[in-house]
Amino acid sequence: MKELEINLTHTSYRIIIEDGLFDHIGDYIKQIYKNNKVFIVTDDNVAKLYLKKVTTVLEKDFTVESVVIPHGEASKCLTEYSHICEELLKKDIRRNHLLLALGGGVIGDLTGFVASTLYRGIPYIGIPTSLLSQMDSSIGGKTGIDFFGRKNILGAFKQPSMVLIDPKVLNTLEPSEYISGMGELIKHGAIGNKKLFDLLDTRPGVDEEIIKESLSVKKKVVEIDEFDTGERMKLNFGHTFGHAIELKYGYKHGVAVGIGMRMALTMGVDLGVTDPLAKDTINRILDKYGFPQVEYDYKEYLADVVYDKKNIAGTINFIFITKLGEAVIYPIREDDLKEKENECNN
Ligand SMILES: NC(=O)c1ccc[n+]([C@@H]2O[C@H](COP(=O)([O-])OP(=O)(O)OC[C@H]3O[C@@H](n4cnc5c(N)ncnc54)[C@H](O)[C@@H]3O)[C@@H](O)[C@H]2O)c1
Ligand SMILES: [Zn+2]
User: Fold this and answer.
1) Listed residue (56, 216, 242, 38) closest to 140, CA to CA
2) Residue 344, pLDDT score
């Protein structure tokens, strides 16, 4: 069993990482919740695999209600949001009841958003089941849904009351979901934790300790920058180019991030910011975990980066690795970037 605590200005919460935690999950919930009714929100994939088991265990201590929605990003929408709220109200949820978000990042974001708005806020516990949600999205308190064709555009910061992780459930993940989560995991090692890198190098697969080390990177950033105004930007390493190639080639997000990291490493070395040794090590780990051994010429993507609507006009904040486990926010003026882009069009 491994444990972490997130300490923020107005709240703190525990994260428990334990193989086989699902066998006695009620013990942890009882520690912080004194009511007798819980409400699970999950998706159909996760429900097929784990809902019966989790419900049976919880029923030793609680009355259990559940809402099951279709899996996939498309469910992070207003329709499913209102569907969940409606079902919960039909099942007579009260403001002092507890929501349990059982699933991947989609369920976490959506359930967290419901928890932040229903009755102006009710408590929820994250029970992440995908690799991405276990090593990243379940902490930090960003919740929300997609709307108006834009990702995560409606949302709120809402911290969970606790996060309960059973790494054993990763055994049932589709390989494509696994590698996508690995992209963000390798990113955490690259930007903030050399020890995580050593573990990724020597262990056969993801385990309790790897998840803990990955979450500790996010913990550090979130504690410094709870509301995403600066330091959290470092989590975008690999994403600037990653987003561009995700759009162009349709790679899964985490895979695109992996390739985006390869591109940012090359650009960082070209600029003299990145230690070439760090570039080689990160690329080697990406190879080990099955990332495509392709790299697109970053100069050809600078224009996409400049016109990305997320960027504030004038300056673009790149994230580069200096040495393994350390990242910097590196602002480059748009005009300077255009010059670099022209260099490659000569
Ligand atoms: N809040 C944050 O800080 C944050 C950070 C990163 C990403 N996100 C969000 O997370 C979402 C992506 O999360 P995701 O990759 O977990 O996607 P997801 O929730 O869609 O899960 C991926 C797939 O795996 C299935 N699944 C989950 N656990 C399983 C298990 N143990 N066994 C078998 N199948 C399982 C799901 O049903 C789904 O089909 C995106 O919407 C993204 O915006 C949020
Ligand atoms: Zn990402």
Assistant:
1) 216
2) 44
172 lines ligand 1 (CB under 6 A): yes
Residue 312 has pLDDT above 80, yes or no: no
Using CA atoms, how far apart are residues 58 and 216, in angstroms rounded to an integer? 28
137 lines ligand 1 (CB under 6 A): yes
Q: Identify which ligand lies nearest to the alpha carbon of 73.
A: 1
Question: Any alpha helices (H) in 193-234, and if so which ranges?
Answer: 194-202, 208-224
Q: Is the pLDDT of residue 309 over 90?
A: no
Asked if the model's pLDDT at residue 294 lies above 70, the reply is yes
Convert the pLDDT of each residue in 86-95 to its tens digit: 999 999 999 9
Q: Which residue numbers belong to the known binding site?
A: 105-109, 129-130, 142, 151, 184, 239, 253
User: Quick one: the chain helix, strand, coil %, rounded to 5?
Assistant: 55, 20, 25
Residues contacting 280, CB < 8 A, separation 6+: none
Atom of ligand 1 nearest to the CA of 130: 28
Q: Where are the domains of the chain?
A: 2-172, 175-345
CATH architecture assigned to 175-345:
Up-down Bundle (1.20)
Q: State which CATH number among 3.10.180.10, 3.40.50.1970, 3.40.190.10, 3.30.2060.10 fits the domain covering 2-172.
A: 3.40.50.1970
Does the beta carbon of 46 sit less than 6 angstroms from any atom of ligand 1? Answer: yes
Substitution candidate for ligand 1 out of 50, 137, 173 with most atoms within 8 A of CB:
137
Q: What is the pLDDT of residues 34-58, one digit of tens each?
A: 999 999 999 999 999 999 999 999 9
Residue numbers in the known binding site for NAD(+) are 105-109, 129-130, 142, 151
Cα of 106 vs centre of ligand 1, distance in Å, is 5
Query: What pLDDT, in 10s, does the model give residues 129-158?
Result: 999 999 999 999 999 999 999 999 999 999
